[in-house]
Each structure stands twice: as structure tokens, then as C-alpha cells.
Amino acid sequence: MDELIETVTTHSEPVVMQVTMPENLGSLLAVMIISVVVLLMAQIAQVAIAFIQMRRSWLESDAIDNAVNSQRDSLINEVHSGEKKRADYLETMASANEEDEVHESVPVYQDISDEVFRNQVEKVIQDNMSNPLLSVATISGILCMDRTGLYRKVQEVYQLSPSDLIKIRRVERIKAILEMDPEMPASKLAASTGFKSKVVMDRFFMLQMGININGFREGVKRGS
Length: 224
What we know:
rod-shaped, single chain, 82% helix, 224 residues
């Protein structure tokens, strides 16, 4: 009986070991796999969070840059607008002051003959030749005539518009100056005849005389 018990005991231990070892190993592997999966998911989550934060930073940076650029453009536009308004205001005031000064020295006519009208128009143009703001408004104000009446009168007497008459007289003044002093600089010539730039002056001179100013200078120098 004792031998039988011993035999059963000695043979039962290996059987028990063979059954329990695979179960423990499987559990251990399962735990390890789960741990690895959890670690990988945690790392993926961290990477995703970091990417989201970086993306948010980029968007915020772009939004800030756009806002700064918009404010800068708005300020630039305001500055340009302010400068233009200031220039327009100064030009208007200068024109008003110049016209007021001329009003004090020129007689006023309500109803004048063609000869008197011609003399007065010529005097206004010659006296204000260097003023780049000389215009129909200047002449009509000095002669106390409305612009429509002045336009019609100039057309009747000269067969020209007031603006064309002013341009012709400016070109004639340039011609007279160059005939006396062909070396006068173009900038001084433009200032003395009321042209705002040398380019505009040369264009009108070419249209009127059929030759540019430099060509006319050379002709005067050669005595032609």
C-alpha cells in the first residue's frame, strides 16, 4: 500500500508541472503584450498631442502675422490718405491766396468790349504765367465773369478754349525766353512759365512748335 502511494505521488508531480507551466507562461505573455500595447498607445497619444499643439501654434502665429500685416496696411493707407488731403488743402489755399492777390491789382469789368476783354485776358495770363494753378477759374474770378460766360467769350474772340489759350501763351513765353537766353536750364524755364514738370513743358512745346525744346535751343545757337 505504501509503495502504491509513493508511486502515485512520484508520478503525479510531473503531470501537475506539465499542466500548470503553460498556463503561467501564457498569462505572462499576455501581460507583456498588453503592457507593450499600452506603452505604444501612450507614446502615440503623446506624439498626437505634441502635433496638435504645434499645429495650433502655427495657426496662432499665422493669425497674428495676418493681423499685424492688416494693421500695417491700414496705417499705411491712412498715412497716404492724410498726405494727399494735406497736399490738396495746401494747393487749394495757395490757389486762393494767389487769386486774391491778383484781384487787388486788376480792374473789374462786368460788361466789356472785345478789345478790352482781350487786353484784360492777356494781362491776367502774362501776370500769372509762372503760376501753375492759372486756369479758367483764375481768369473768370479776376474778371468777375462766370466760367460759362468766359468760355464763350474766349471762344468768340480767340476761337480757342481758355485752357488752350493759356498753353499757347506759355509756349510763346518759352520761345521768347530761349531766343534771349538759349542756355537757361529746363527746370528754371518750366518754373518761369508755370509748367509743373519739364516733361509736360516739352510735350506742349513740341505740339505747338513742331520741335522739342532742345532742338529749338540748338537752332537758336546756330542762328537759324
